[in-house]
Amino acid sequence: MSISGTGSVDTAVFTVGGLGTRFLPATKALPKEMLPVVDKPLIQYAVEEAKEAGIEYFVFVTGRGKTAIEDHFDAHPYLETALTDRGKHDLAETINGDRPEPGHLVYVRQAEPLGLGHAVWCARKVVGNRPFALFLPDDLIRGNNGPCIGELIDVHAEHGGNVLSVMEVDREATSQYGIVDSEPGSKDVMRIRRVVEKPSPADAPSRYAIIGRYVLDPTVFDHLATATRGAGNEIQLTDAIESMIPTTPLHGVVLNGRRYDCGTKVGYIEANVALGLERSDLAQDVERVVRDALDRHTSLGRVR
Ligand code: G1P
User: Is the pTM here over 0.90, yes or no?
Assistant: First the structure.
């Protein structure tokens, strides 16, 4: 039941099964991927990034309580008619405009929260034997030169194998990420010789962390099939990628852009402010309210 397509990487997997406990109570009944950044749900930014890079097929690895995501990418004829009848054509276009084609979206359920590696493995029958893009939608990424995943697809076209987006993080933060060890001399595109999931700062081989964009060779599914539990007692994608290094080239592409970690409250707030400031219809007002809030905060003598 593999999807067939034409481009070199035309399929993307989105892992959207997480419980979103960091955003409770907001995520009690709402998937965290549906939390809005300005006026679009987080998941839509990832799908738009994928489309911009030429991805045509969208595979969501979901879980219980996530049906709002399916509804979001479905048609809503009643709402469209209501908007059109009221002359709100722009809004009708917003909810209808760039929906993926019928039959290009697939939802598979992870059923058990056994980790990112397990979530990716759940997509194996849909992806089949072809390279694919992987998005962790908590990471909202604004590339300086077009979509971040597009740069990874270009590097994959040149080198094949696995390609990861990486960025420098503080040494104290290494225990929150997969960390890479690259060959000396590499700069924007690095050849990686080791990856380790969530090392302590003392054990981290570098400060380059994997962020939520990958292009993966389909043989990753074989490695995930036999994977044992790693960090956090979960089946880790990083461990499967590490086990492929002897047979499969692995490259890191240093992020050229900005990443907002919408898996954390502060990153989510930062994304709303930053993307609000990107919008010509909102920038002036957003700037004013942020400045006012800061002034009030300072005048009340609160710690900054
Ligand atoms: C996952 C990956 C990790 C990566 C991170 C990026 O971790 O396992 O290697 O650095 O995403 O956000 P998680 O954030 O799911 O714990």
Answer: yes
